[in-house]
Amino acid sequence: MPDIVRAEDLDIKQIFLLLATPGNMRERNIQVIKELSTLGYHSVVITTNFPYSILKKMYEESGVDLTKVSFVDTVTHHSIGKVENIRGVVRYINSPADLTDMGIAVTEVLKEQRTGEKVCILYDSISTMLIYLSSPSISKFIHFLTNKLRLMDISGIFLAAEKGLDPMLMNQLITFVDKVIETG
Description:
The protein is α/β, with parallel strands linked by helices. It is built from seven helices and seven strands, in the order αβαβαββαβααβαβ. Helix content is about 40%, strand content about 20%. Strands 4-3-2-5-6-1-7 form a seven-stranded parallel sheet, sandwiched between helices. Helix 6 runs parallel beside helix 7 (about 165-175). The longest helix is centred in the C-terminal third of the chain and has 18 residues, at about 135-150. It is globular and about 40 Å long. The mean pLDDT is about 90.
């Protein structure tokens, strides 16, 4: 499969909405992280879909250099998993529905990045957020996050299941991003 995101789009700090079939979400997540790593980016994965320990294992099995990835895990604590924040590696928050904690965690993780380091956020996934929050709440948070990324001059990729979002939420998301990428 060809590259999902072009290096020149990342270099100008664009923000993307990446749509995938529900069956390809995991594969697209891994593919994007591998591409970002190859391009010299440090990825910050905000996961509402998989616990850190599962993503870490998936990435390791796929050959991803984990020194180039940090995580904000919103599901492990909520699922009563063992949590221990590790600076520069993983930060846990209580629940995918706790948008205040998520916003704080993302800000803190981004501040931990080294000066001059190319950084890109992967948010996996907007579709999963619908289990915990209403579409208007998700839309407000994504609007906040895309503006934070723009102000910090950081690229972002928001992963969602195609046909998994209501039309109003989809239209709002499209207005927040620079490009929509349909990967199937």
